[in-house]
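hi! just following up on the protien thing from before. the input was this:
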Amino acid sequence: MNYSFNFIPESIRMPGSYIEFDPSQAGLGDDMPAVLIVGQKLAAGTAPAGEITQVSSVEDAMVKAGGRSMLADMVRDYRRRDQVLDLFILPLADNSAGTAATATIVVNSPATADGTLSLYIDGQEVSVGITSTMTTAQIAAAIAAAVGTEAIAALTEGNNIPCDAAAAASTVTLTALHKGTCGNNIDVRLNLYQERTPTGLSLTINGFAGGAGDPNTPDLNVLLEPRYFKYVALGINNLATFTAWHSVVKTRLQPENQEYTQIFSAYRGDYASAYSFGGSLNFELLSVLSLGINPTSTWRAAAMYAAACAPKLYSSPQESLEGRELTGMVGVNYHIWRDANSLLFKGMSIMNIAQDGTCTILRPISTYQKRSDGSADDSYLDINTLAILDKTRRLQRNEARKWIGYSAAASAEGFKPGLKIVTKDSVKAMLLSLYKNDLQYEYGLVQNYDFYKSTLQVEQDPTNPSRFNFVDQPVLVSPYYMLTGRNQFRKVAD
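and the predicted 3d structure came back as:
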């Protein structure tokens, strides 16, 4: 026989035509990527804390995590932007030793004319009817009641008020639904869209503070072992949580697992605090969006950020993510140019706020900034880099799978055509063809084929002849972000 068959033996004498199917040269190997949303659940949620489960819809997430939970918020906001990728949740119970953040609204003086108070909590409006006959205590009671009413109504409208309210005398106390530092990131303000406070009414708002005790990260090695999530949105944004997650996903990136996972989160604070926070991070697979002091909470922003990036990174990892809308994000003001540019040197991703309040990604970067010796390193600055490398590796592995069941030899010399033999030359030819025809021409992930060809090294392992080794130097394309130039204008042409 000139050819090697998988299912047709040589020991056939019965007349007939025998044709087998061999898919080894056809499969492209792609699969639907999965997204994992990590956040806190409420006691009413039916899903067990610390166990990953798939969600089929926003309503399913509300049942499993609790309708007003952080996790339900995140699923709701993620699905506003991306309806395609598979979605899973990791519900975490509140830390029993934690405390919930609180805020207060103190009514200093009553209104002298009827009107409507426009209170905003996490960007969600709470309208309070005010009359000139109400005392400060009655106004406080009306605010608390309106928060409770709006919390119920918001769920039917696809929104949420992440706190409860209670009035005592002339003071309204708002209490975050979850324990932990998350509550410190709930925004409370008046007149987000330039509404007018009723004449004479004076209020003092003391923002959310005092939240402490975040959930502990479960054993991720156990949780993630049977599963692969390409993207993770983290609703909890402390350094301990980031460190735990990155340690595991960085390990799983290595050859033993070869699983790339990009983590998204968000940070709320002014320039100085964002600068300090970003400077404490150094993780290649973590991207943190700086929100400034804007109405959207950090956990919701993390989901919006992941939803804006994930589908594009998967389909076209080489393309810029600038301009991708952060659907649902409410923006009022942001870091000035100088401060935003500075944060890009401190591992913080930045966004843009349009005049109408629409928020879009400006530049998403990783938090990786330094080598182990402390020297600056921008090799993983853009989150596109690892996404491109992941796609490159997946395509190389898919091609190599076509040799399953082959034998290995130093060269093809002396063998008749059709035998299942892989050689150093065939490995090199595969890598070169893949680079030129797929990675460069078809997908636009890489460039400079001649350089790649000249630097590619392939060998049959000297101590293990069943193994081939190669070292290549792909030249990656970069996402486009800026144009610079000098306009040497003249008034008279020479």
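The first strand starts at residue 34 and ends at 40.
Residues 34-93+215-382 form one domain.
cheers
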